[in-house]
Design a protein that fits this description.
single chain; alpha/beta; Isopropylmalate Dehydrogenase; 2 domains; ten-stranded mixed beta sheet; two-stranded antiparallel ribbon; globular; binds adenosine-5'-triphosphate
């Protein structure tokens, strides 16, 4: 049996609460599926900054480096110093953000099933900002290499999905002629290697509208860093809110998984944070481990977790953000029981 080393960032605000839920579910999956996980804390975020003056200590980076994957809860004000740095240092260039209608969840677009593939390493998020006389300037870096590899991910993903095998590249090349010109032409070039995929392009303003008007028409969206950040929050809201939105940050050999939402200080320490975005991130992590390590047990555990989450949503075992009355821990306990029940039926 393979033992997987999982680096864990418990984060700030509601981070520790959704982390507790994730740990209880990982324990349930270990017991039911015989998974072997070594959870290794990698402290990072505002609490580290306050204690030791750095948001992402070297010891934590070293724990992450010696792990098979990283599971991260949201961090607060120091988010950019933690996750933007991890994405860059570990070359986690593909941010995968699925937005899919879930059973029992009232939402604007219950039939939507799309994935946003967001370039994760460059664009304005490079942080190249300078003060100039009378203001400031931010540099937007878009390279051919980064654009081609994110496009490869998007086309590969479209080919592996049951949906329409459609990729739409979202950019603003009519205004950002040079930078988005590079991105658009890289997507067109990569498309040539994937002739079975239906490819189109859309300006980001039109895409923001079309997501509201006809969300079901999208399959895979590939886009640059800032546009992807904004559109994925919009897409998350379409299918029931940010408390349900998971994400993966993928490199070629390493990956980090985290909910899309932030540390939500307004509801921290009340036990009411929705743990499902974090749990679906756990499911994405197990799926990735299963695929990258060719371990079917991880894949089965991931699928059982998704089924158990759906059961909780269908039966209205939910936190107040979804109109429910349950605490985070109750939702997690219900999901753990569903995993157990599901195993008994197999
Ligand atoms: P940060 O500054 O770290 O990004 P934030 O709270 O400003 O955090 P979001 O995480 O995007 O930003 O959250 C916006 C609001 O959505 C929160 O203030 C909270 O009310 C709600 N929210 C976010 N995540 C959850 C969750 N898991 N469960 C319930 N409500 C949530």
């Amino acid at each position: 049996m393979t033992r997987y080393r999982i680096a864990l960032i418990e984060g700030d605000g509601i981070g520790p609460e959704v982390t507790r839920a994730a740990l209880s579910i990982l324990e349930a999956l270990e017991a039911e599926f015989g998974l072997s996980l070594e959870i290794r804390p990698a402290p990072a975020g505002d609490s580290c900054l306050q204690k030791g003056g750095v948001a992402l200590p070297e010891e934590s980076i070293s724990v992450i480096r010696r792990s098979d994957s990283c599971l991260k809860a949201p961090v607060g004000e120091s988010a950019a110093d933690v996750v933007v740095r991890l994405r860059r240092d570990f070359d986690l260039y593909a941010n995968i953000r699925p937005a899919k209608g879930l059973p029992g969840v009232k939402s604007l677009a219950p039939g939507a099933d799309l994935v946003i593939v967001r370039e994760n390493t460059e664009d304005l998020y490079k942080g190249m900002e300078f003060e100039i006389d009378g203001g400031a300037v931010a540099l937007r870096l878009i390279t051919r290499r980064a654009s081609e590899r994110i496009a490869e991910r998007a086309f590969g993903l479209a080919e592996s999905r049951k949906k329409g095998r459609k990729v739409v590249a979202v950019h603003k090349a009519n205004v950002l002629k040079k930078s988005d010109g590079v991105f658009a032409s890289a997507c067109r070039k990569v498309w040539r290697g994937h002739p079975g995929v239906n490819f189109s392009e859309m300006y980001v303003d039109a895409a923001a509208m079309a997501l509201i008007r006809s969300p079901e028409s999208f399959d895979v969206i590939v886009t640059t860093n800032l546009f992807g950040d904004i559109l994925s929050d919009e897409a998350a809201q379409l299918v029931g809110g940010i408390g349900l939105a998971p994400s993966a940050n993928l490199g070629d050999k390493f990956a980090l998984f985290e909910p899309v939402h932030g540390s939500a200080p307004d509801i921290a320490n009340r036990g009411i944070a929705n743990p499902i975005a974090m749990l679906l991130s756990v499911s994405m992590m197990l799926e990735w481990l299963g695929e990258s390590r060719r371990d079917p047990v991880c894949g089965r555990a991931a699928s059982s977790l998704r089924t158990a989450v759906n059961a909780a949503l269908e039966r209205g075992v939910t936190t107040p953000d979804l109109g429910g009355k349950n605490k985070s821990a109750e939702v997690a306990a219900y999901i753990a029981r569903q995993i157990h029940e599901g195993r008994k039926k197999e």
